[in-house]
Design brief:
The chain is mainly alpha-helical and 232 residues long. The chain has a two-stranded antiparallel ribbon. The radius of gyration is 18 Å and the shape is globular.
């Protein structure tokens, strides 16, 4: 099986499982649309367009990971930091749909699988990691860059295991699931390092120039200190 990032082609996972994940992806994206309405404002709306355009452009550029294996930015962590979890998931999904329909990058019957892995699992993992890391790391360009690097590596690797689950449920060839899991994890750690460097550079630059446009700096706060009154 050739591994090119995580775009799944037609026929890798059988029809029934692909259909189930298509329905799941559609329901999840509907929830994202509903939740995103509360986040969208005059700052986030244009940022969402820029994030989607940036992810689309960078995903078109593959970089060599191993012989016969190439990777590209998935974009979940970058989208979360700049646009938030709900809008970020919609940005990545839009990119995947356009790539599938216009460039045949990922199979049409596998669009639900690809959205689940890259736009939903990748973004959700990135959100949890970013929210947690910014509780302990400084909310500065350097701290944001370190957060993006760490969260990208882990979220990309976690997202790759989504394919392993889907293949275990409906894979059309006889391949060892532990072998697939280990191979996907190993390759996507390397892909995650590349993504992390790109994401870290991008978000740190934006944070230096326009910190007010960075969703993470506005919404991911450290826990407020709890004052305990001591009786006199």
């Amino acid at each position: 099986m050739d591994t090119v990032a995580m775009h799944i082609a037609n026929g890798i996972v059988n029809g029934p499982v692909s259909a189930v994940f298509a329905l799941f992806a559609a329901a999840a994206l509907a929830l994202c649309v509903y939740k995103a309405r509360a986040d969208l404002d005059e700052r986030l709306a244009p940022m969402a367009g820029l994030v989607a355009a940036f992810i689309f452009a960078v995903q078109m550029l593959n970089f060599q990971v191993l012989p016969g294996v190439s990777g590209h930015l998935l974009g979940g962590t970058l989208a979360v930091i700049l646009a938030g979890p709900w809008v970020g998931a919609l940005c990545v999904s839009t990119v995947l749909i356009v790539q599938c329909l216009l460039f045949a990058d990922g199979g049409l019957t596998a669009i639900g699988l690809n959205i689940t892995n890259m736009a939903l699992i990748g973004t959700a993992a990135g959100y949890l990691l970013v929210a947690g890391l910014l509780r302990v790391l400084p909310k500065s360009p350097a701290g944001l860059g370190a957060t993006a690097l760490i969260a990208s590596i882990i979220s990309v690797t976690v997202a790759s295991q989504g394919f392993v689950l889907e293949y275990a449920l409906g894979g059309t060839t006889e391949l060892s699931i532990p072998t697939i899991s280990a191979t996907m994890a190993g390759v996507h750690v390397l892909i995650g390092i590349g993504e992390g460097l790109i994401a870290a550079t991008t978000v740190a630059t934006v944070a230096r120039v326009r910190p007010d446009l960075v969703y993470a700096l506005r919404h991911f706060r450290k826990p407020a200190a709890v004052e305990i009154a001591v009786p006199a």
